[in-house]
């Protein structure tokens, strides 16, 4: 069989110091990864970027709803729903967030690949940004703490994670949670994200109702209640932008996914956006208004460097407010479940997880990179960074080393200079993507133990309360509280009766135990044993 040019390139790179650092096949490294080839890694990195790139516009769209550092001074309209000056300020925040999202995704993905040698892309996480915006800061700053204070919580979270990562406690803290609750939190966040995608922040299919809590939306602006955006008097489901988002950003994207088109979500977003860019159409994103003119003027630049003006280094460094710590604790818990679970699952998918220790190579470095990136992201004005499950697309393409993540990082870096394009993606273009990502996240409910009410009911309460309360923390509290109450009483009765009084289906429960190692993780036990024996 003849040797192709690709084979020669792969062999030459593998035999270099670069190839040995990343354990490419043929490098001679004792831990070389079978099937890892340089050109394959590049293709895998671009595939991962294509699957992840939607986060640039989606993250900016969600976080901009918080209002960022913009201050609402209208006493008659406390959330400045109709204040044009405030709207212009929020538009600037959105542009800053485009730059921030692309930049921190580039930095974190590059570091994950270069230092941890893992084929995993990083970026601000969906779910975490929704919690940051709608549960902590609130729509246009109507929440429990300000945007600046929330960034302070995120910054401190990163350094706490850094210490926990060095001690190896993040893995242990994840294993201590009942498995059904861990799965339910992730699935509940999926429902939350899908609900946002269906609401006025996305497609607009679901809107407010003056009688019920929610109702059908999708009406045109002239059919809404005066001063209540998203609340329809009549004419539901008649919005042309809503139907455009459903068909191109939703149905068309799903069809592309069925036929395994790479980057289907990103393609769907851009098709919807391109249709929305002409100014003289019913679905235009640039209406002939003052705000529309401002958006269109920025869009015409196409390629430009947009500096981070309003949200860079905007942290309020005062940690005396109790609600800042409340937000911090919830960020810690949710991010532990999110990032740790994703890293473990992606390492297992790539064949890099040790079947004995259940750990993966360079796990401590990977968690430290994640923690460092969280704090750097806070300095740049964004919610916590996390590992992306979309990394599975690049791994499926053959990505096995950190080169995949480095290529993904470089692709995000190039996106920094296309801010006008990503800033001009309308909410109805990203709404379908949010619904699809939510559908991917909820499929893990199959792993919940539905056979025993002590596991099923707390998991279900977590699932349902997260989207309905618009708050991840409330869902977690409901799940943990109900789990302790429902399972604590049978446990006490069992102990008091010496095993005679137990529920009829008790043998179907998952059970719960403290993971081995306690506060001394596996790697510390091994180190201590090696030192003293």
UniProtKB/TrEMBL annotation:
Protein's cellular compartments: Endomembrane system
For whether the record's keyword set contains Ribonucleoprotein, the answer is no
Q: Tell me a GO cellular component.
A: plasma membrane
Where does the UniProt entry say this protein principally localizes?
A: membrane
Swiss-Prot/TrEMBL keywords:
Membrane, Transmembrane, Transmembrane helix, Transport
Leader sequence range is none
Q: One biological-process term from Gene Ontology?
A: adenine transport
Recorded hits in Pfam families, A to Z, give: Xan_ur_permease
Show the stretches that span the lipid bilayer: 97-116, 151-169, 181-206, 241-259, 324-344, 364-389, 401-419, 472-493
**Membrane protein topology class:** Multi-pass membrane protein
One Gene Ontology MF term: purine nucleobase transmembrane transporter activity
Q: Which family does it belong to?
A: Belongs to the nucleobase:cation symporter-2 (NCS2) (TC 2.A.40) family. Azg-like subfamily.
Name by which UniProt lists this protein: Xanthine/uracil permease
Source organism of this protein record: Gloeophyllum trabeum (strain ATCC 11539 / FP-39264 / Madison 617) (Brown rot fungus)
